[in-house]
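[Automated response] Your request has been received and processed.

Submitted sequence:
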Amino acid sequence: MTLDKARDIIKDHVFIGGGYNQTATKMVLGELCKDQGQQAVDQIIHEFKLDELWGFMPGTHFKSVYK
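Generated structure:
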């Protein structure tokens, strides 16, 4: 997954802000980590303030649901 694609998906989930959206965001971050690395994940966490919204802390490793 590219950083731009992750941004597009996550901005919609953040806008809605529900529990299912939190889980879906974790899945996106897992895919992003697998493809782009932890630095890209941390960048998204800061950009969308996911630490304040859902408690996602920079440095947290989100696992991809796909191997």
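Summary generated for your ticket: The two ends are 14 Å apart (CA to CA). The mean pLDDT is 94.
If you did not submit this request, please reply to this message.
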